[in-house]
Amino acid sequence: MARMTPAERKVILASSLGTVFEWYDFYLYGSLAPIIAKQFFTALDDTTGFIFALLTFAAGFIVRPFGALVFGRLGDTAGRKHTFLITLLIMGASTFLVGLLPGYATLGVAAPVLLVALRMLQGLALGGEYGGAATFVAEHSPPGHRGAQTAWIQTTATMGLFLSLLVILGTRTLIGEKAFAADGWRIPFLVSILLLVLSVWIRMSMQESPTFRRMKAEGKTSKSPLRESFARWPNLRLVLIALFGATAGQAVVWYAGQFYTQFFLTQTLKVDGATANLLVAASLLLGTPFFLVFGRLSDRIGRKPIIIAGCVLAALTYFPLFKALTSAANPALAQAQASAPVQLVADPRECSFQFNPTGAVKFTSSCDIAKQSLAAASVNYENIKAEGPARIRVGNTELAHDDKAGLATALADAGYPKTANPAEIRYVTVIAILTLLVLYVTMVYGPIAALLVELFPTRIRYTSMSLPYHIGNGWFGGLLPTLSFAIVAQVGNIYSGLWYPVGVALATALIGLFLLPETRDRDLNA
Fold this sequence. Notes:
Shape: globular
Structural class: mainly alpha
Number of domains: 2
CATH class of the largest domain: Mainly Alpha
Number of strands: 4
Helix content: over 70%
CATH superfamily of the largest domain: MFS general substrate transporter like domains
Order of helices and strands: HHHHHHHHHHHHHHHHHHEHEEEHHHHHH
Largest sheet: 4 strands, mixed
CATH topology of the largest domain: Growth Hormone, Chain: A
């Protein structure tokens, strides 16, 4: 690979640092979702409160496509640089305000409402950020090196998550777990103001991309990028192919590998938060360089084969990898599941879908009461159809649906641990599994920026690439933790939530194989 010029290094550095900051802001909430659930959703039961906290996390993802439309249009008409400077300011201000927002105990229902509003502002800002940064770097990159240079932008999401974990861990260590759970969780949000000042200062020194300057000088900028992108079938077809044949699968692999794993460790396997953060951070540290490896490789063999291979590998190995993760992170739990499996014996007609965001619905059937007890204990169980009141079987012991004390005793006697024993965690194995999951992320995500930039013409590039990227990552990916945990809560099997990313990844691989064009040799000035 040719050595980068000082100008190219400056563009990559300036774009990447600002984007790292935005991802840091965005992922603070995801890393702290269990604590935030207890601060802002105390009126709900624990399971519903956590799912609702994940929905608030997902709210930022849901609005990202709308940010893509607003800021994509602005980027194609006014320029790349000024647009993602605006998104940076919106993101920074919203994050700082989350750190100041009082919880449910002080503001009541207004607290979660305001939290959702701030998350939506973050999502809008991020919807305009990524397309600008990826387009900006690609339009500064020489032909044959766009995969390698835009891969630096791809590292920023993982680096932002890594930075958020480091700040959280540092704060937890300095002030203690009790103080952190009370109000110390606000500190990582508040210190983001320092990163905002640094990022704005760096981006103010950037120049507009040469491709956009040339197009503007020739009077070829689009007067209506939204209409050209989505109201004309040839380009709309490319948008749909990009969504279903690339970004949807890329997104679920990304969020399963970097986010669902963290929630799975803490909520299902009962690994304490600080330890889970360290394990995920270690895997990110080991895996992140491979964004650059696969970005550079895509310049040689193409974007498409690497992305499709990542989707297929993830879909084929998720179930065995997550089962191996259970055995390594909480061996006692894995052993108890094998020696004393739990069954819910109930009439399916009595079993409700237990999602209660308002707290107004009361689940009173014997099946629902039993499910609530099992979900609260994070127990993996099998559903057995039978008439009459629901019963719970733990190994050879059968209990009434409402015998919570008996259930706790039976689980303890069968060896089900309340928390993962740190002394029994096989740390090297856990990190190896998590790192492999991150490697899948680098395969699908490393080449995606170059692919999307090259897929669309310059005059509508910012708008056209931003929408499929943010629908894929905002909706298919961002909703993954919420949907997967809701599936687990309903079905009872702790691995059942994996069917969602497996299904989407396989669908993307098939659609991409037949419809997605290879783009690595395309001219960006077209």
